[in-house]
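Title: Prediction job returns without error message
Component: structure pipeline
Severity: low
Priority: P3
Assignee: unassigned

Description:
Job completed but the reporter wants confirmation the result is attached to the right record. Sequence as submitted:
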Amino acid sequence: MSHEKEPVEDEYTDEEQEEQGMIHTPISALEEFGINASDIKKLSDNGYTTVQAIAFSPRKALLTIKGISEAKVDKIQAEAFKLAPKMGFETATEVKERREEYIYITTGSSELNKLLGGGIESGSITEVFGEFRTGKSQLCHTLAVTCQLPVDNGGSEAAAMMTSSRFGLLIVDSVTSLYRTDYSGRGELAARQMHLAKFLRGLLRLADEFGIAVVITNQVVASVDGNMLFPGAADKKPIGGNIIAHASTTRLYLRKGKGDNRVCKIYDSPCLPEGEVTFSIGLGGIEDAKD
């Protein structure tokens, strides 16, 4: 007696995925191009589930997989390059059209959304840093809820990872806390930065490959030389140095305001002008500022 697989209600067609900038090709497609099923299973067991993941990964990373020889890696990547879209050079017009397909996840505050050009952008890494009690985790909690709203309402129609549905938001809170305890002292600084760079590269690959929004929070540290990086920073600077600065697409600095109000400043962004707005933290999460 055979049983047919019941369709998942939240599955997306290729056309719907392409409209939302989240199209990707499952790694099983390589079997039609002469790649053995056993090799595909080895790749899948090691976290490579899409053709894009194979195409974007460095050759030496694939060589670490047991049972995958150099000849197999060359053949697998050659076929992946043929299947994976967005490989090679792109014109500025093509990049603009691709970025217009990205969606924006509402933050819960209309003024903060306006500052960010619509909300938290998908397909990129947004870093949120500041002192304690400035609203970093509250913003993450609000985004975890609003990302499940329909796209028309400022969400990404995502769901929690434990469901069979896709997810459109990845939050790391905080990205540097464990590195500060596991790698201590200047003697381990180089190892810490190298591992942090690999971790951030993995986050960026997920954003590029699946078109999800990646939000990371970061802590601050007192500036030893006493030079303020920007007005209102009170001799504080984000941890991670140039490694996080180069990996993050948009960097947001949060600081305390009056009462429950908080101030968000765009510290760095390739497409947004510098500016700041005031928002508030209420019972429902992030909301517009209170008078």
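Comment from assignee: result matches the submitted record. Confidence is low (pLDDT under 50) at residues 1-22.
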